[in-house]
């Protein structure tokens, strides 16, 4: 027997061993799957498993790179989505990105360690330890580019106090009442921009914002709301240029997350300012795309779009139980999949040995617990415990952070590379 009676709480323990790093890899869990591994019939794969399709990743990098070239905009792809060096280095080396965006000083540090030379902290930099680390990095690596936001006089003071003898380039962030971070008025913008211009530690090089916080839909009113927001950024830049507060001979205009980079690009490239404009968009979700949120709202998902993204992430799990004819349970849950926007979308089913691929017709996940997904299915379907169920996900920004490692696979689900993450 594998249990000993009577049960006793005797406090005995074995020696502590290194914790496994990769939950989807069998054995010790400390080495990624070998290239060439066929994931569905390999003894080296634990279920559940999140993976990324190489063909989709490569397509998505090509598509946005082509869009940026056509529109005349630059890309600081947001690294927070995947925080994976193997993916993010491709965005620069293959995807035409100028650099990468980050949201925190810790992410800036990670991107530097990934070998990224141009980093845009698309946020305010107010943490003294983070300011000091970035200031020291810039001092030691003056050839590396760095940008961040400022939206307050206190933010200016904190940067001056903790940058040491480093000098960094900043963008004034603007927003609207009820929005996210950013100045709320032109008077406030002028006051802060003047403080930046007078600072020996800072150089004002542009104006930025985040249109996604507006909560606008893709109807005519929503599109106009985003256009008006972009125009507010342009108007602010014109005001600051008139007062000669920019330290550079170019003005960076930056916005454009995963949902609105098309509208943002059109507005910024049409801007007429006293100095040349460099539009800089910051989408990050595009590398993975999805089968839910971004499949609905991304610019390339809209009618008439010339480019297209492909969902690159899939979660595969095994059926744990089928206690009722129309209900099965799969072995992934909130610890494994995003659930903040939509639940996973069943796409495919395979037999226990990975064979007999078929569409997940009539199947739907209705709920997820920590480690269980409730799968509703036709009563006559032959799905059984041990079978594989593969799903698309919604919102890649809350998918990668649940995995230290994902295999990159070809269209036959053969491993081609290892994607580790650094959250």
UniProtKB/TrEMBL annotation:
Organism superkingdom: Bacteria
Domain D-serine dehydratase-like per the UniProt entry, residue ranges: 312-410
Transmembrane segments: none
Gene3D superfamilies, per the entry: Alanine racemase, D-serine dehydratase-like domain
Keywords from the UniProt entry: Lyase
Any one Pfam family match given in the protein's UniProt record, by short name: Ala_racemase_N
InterPro entries noted in UniProt: Ala_racemase_N, D-amino_acid_metab_enzyme, D-ser_dehydrat-like_dom, D-ser_dehydrat-like_sf, PLP-binding_barrel
The keyword Nucleotide-binding appears for this protein: no
Similarity comment: family membership: Belongs to the DSD1 family.
PANTHER family on file: D-SERINE DEAMINASE, ZGC:162816-RELATED
Protein name as catalogued: D-serine dehydratase-like domain-containing protein
Lineage, highest ranks first: Bacteria, Pseudomonadati, Pseudomonadota, Gammaproteobacteria, Enterobacterales
